[in-house]
Amino acid sequence: MRILVVGDSFMPPRYFRESFAGVELEHDVTYAQVDATQTFVATTASEQRIRESQGSPAELVGWMPGIEVLVVQGAPVTDEVIAASDQLRLVCCARGGPVNVDVEAVNGKGLPLVITPGKNAEAVADLALAFLVMTARRLSEAQRFLHEGNDANDNWVGARFIGSDLRRHVLGLVGFGQVGPRVAARALAFGLEVIVFDPYVEVQTFEQVASLGELLERSDFVSLHARATPETEKIIDAAAFATMKPGAVLVNTARETLVDEEALDLALASGQLGGAALDLVRERKEPGPHPLLRHNNVVITPHVGGATHETLLQGAEMIAEEISRFAAGEPLVYVMNSHPTLPE
């Protein structure tokens, strides 16, 4: 098969090359990388259905003739791209959610669409635990103290930042899909008691509570791992913060839509919340530091949860495995759509 692998600035082709050694023995693989400076204005319905992409559809169209398998991470896959090869048989997106792919157009052609669910779960779980430690030990406050030019030369200075161990505290997990169980397993090693709220999953190993309110009332740390859906939009709002224990900490490595940031700001300002650590926040038009950073007990990172070499390699490996299954006529494991062309 003729395979086109398109990398981008987040996942360059070298990650695919490292994982595609076996695929290259059996198939004709071409590697390309989108020009990150190329942008396009979404004018067609197909272009308007995609987001979080890099490069332009026109760039991909030029590479597509004769391609049977298209592999991307963040390149834009529109109906125009799909139509550019009349031999296309399989579309692969090395992400958990193919937001840069026009799924409707892929389905319209009866093509299987492969994704990589959970590829970043280990990395995100690591970050969630790092956030827990950072907030419990007041590391953001200590770091700001040093940035202001103060010295840290004796034990008495450290006494300004007395924090907490994680042990003897309760961690509440909202959502128990790919990341939640990994966070729970790590949390046990730190001596945390773990409780879980997820109405869509039956939890066996840890205590599952019946409501979000019960979880918020009992938790010293609340870590979000739910999907972004209309139902979960701002599930952590003013009422939720009022329900939480005074001094509790919020960690969000899931989606920014889960949190009402204005309510979070007020909860921090009032002292109801003891701290927050967020890997992603809502997009703002205003320049300058994020308003939440005015609070010394807040940590914000620029969506680095899955930004590890191991995550990218795992995504490429999952795609390589699926291509091998497809070539052998075997059932696909990570296919997200259904259509008559898939093996039974």
Mind sketching the topology for me?
Elements: E1 2-7, H1 13-19, H2 21-26, E2 28-33, H3 45-48, H4 57-63, E3 69-72, H5 79-83, E4 90-93, H6 103-108, E5 113-114, H7 121-136, H8 139-147, H9 155-158, E6 170-174, H10 180-189, E7 193-197, E8 207-208, H11 212-218, E9 221-224, H12 238-243, E10 248-252, H13 261-270, E11 273-278, E12 298-300, H14 309-327
Parallel strand pairs: 1-2, 1-3, 3-4, 4-5, 6-7, 6-9, 7-8, 9-10, 10-11, 11-12
Helix pairs in contact: 1-14, 7-10
Brief sketch in words of this structure:
The protein has 344 residues and is of the alpha/beta class. The chain folds into two domains: 2-119 and 308-327, Rossmann fold (3-Layer(aba) Sandwich), CATH 3.40.50; 121-300, 3-Layer(aba) Sandwich (Rossmann fold), CATH 3.40.50.720. It has 14 helices and twelve strands.
- The chain-level mean pLDDT equals 95
How do the strands of the widest beta sheet line up side by side? 8-7-6-9-10-11-12
CATH topology type of the largest domain: Rossmann fold
Main sheet: strands, sense, barrel: 7 strands, parallel
Helical fraction equals 25-40%
Radius of gyration (CA) equals 23 Å
Tally of DSSP β-strands: 12
Number of helices: 14
The poorly predicted ranges are 340-344
Coarse morphology: elongated
Q: Which structural class do you get from the secondary structure elements? A: alpha/beta
Note the beta-strand portion.
Answer: 15-25%
Q: Which CATH class of the largest domain is shown? A: Alpha Beta
Distance between the termini: 21 Å
Judging by the overall fold, what is the CATH architecture of the largest domain? 3-Layer(aba) Sandwich
Order of helices and strands: EHHEHHEHEHEHHHEHEEHEHEHEEH
Q: Please identify which CATH superfamily of the largest domain we are dealing with.
A: NAD(P)-binding Rossmann-like Domain
The number of domains:
2
